[in-house]
Write a structure and sequence with these properties.
Distance between the termini: 22 Å
Strand content: 25-35%
Order of helices and strands: EHHEEHEHEHEE
Number of strands: 7
Number of helices: 5
Low-confidence stretches: 1-6
Shape: globular
Radius of gyration: 15 Å
Structural class: alpha+beta
Largest sheet: 7 strands, mixed
């Protein structure tokens, strides 16, 4: 998933609940694109505004990226993920989730800038960086490996989802 490095600047800031619709729009846009590629990862019909609110209420830290005032990306960080990481979950890691970039800005380097921003933030908190993705999404798995992430575990859930867990120190 190579991105061209166009010299653009994004500004990342902590989102609030009032940003919920922007977050949902990014999730749904990414989900539609993923589905169009035949990847069973995100389904736009499964996302709704209540999910975003529940994530805020659970204490997840949402971030939005803007370029020239336009929302171009999002992700959230949580400091524990026992559902996916099970016994490997620990207090020494920050977990990046629901990473999404506006489809209108794909290929402009925003994804890499967002991940880099999250990595610096998590490292400055004294923690390792963790993330996950669907095992069938070969392009995204390769992207994370190219960014220096180490494959930690493969999970196959009862519902048929196959997930790879990654970590970066």
């Amino acid at each position: 998933m190579k991105e061209e490095c166009i010299n653009i600047q994004i500004k990342v800031h902590r989102a609030t609940k009032t940003d919920s619709q922007s977050i949902l729009d990014l999730w749904k846009g990414s989900a539609r694109w993923i589905q169009s590629k035949g990847i069973n990862q995100w389904n736009p019909d499964h996302f709704n505004i209540n999910q975003v609110h529940e994530c805020f209420d659970s204490g997840f830290e949402f971030y939005l990226a803007r370029m020239n005032g336009e929302v171009v990306g999002t992700f959230y960080i949580c400091w524990s993920d026992p559902i996916l990481w099970e016994e490997l979950d620990n207090n020494n890691s920050g977990y990046i989730h629901r990473f999404a970039v506006s489809r209108a800005h794909i290929g402009s380097g925003i994804g890499r800038q967002l991940i880099n921003w999250a990595e610096v933030y998590i490292r400055n908190s004294g923690k390792n960086i963790r993330l996950d993705c669907m095992a069938e999404n070969a392009r995204l798995n390769r992207y994370y490996i190219e960014m220096g992430y180490k494959h930690i575990r493969y999970i196959e859930w009862k519902n048929g989802w196959k997930i790879n867990l990654y970590e970066k120190y």
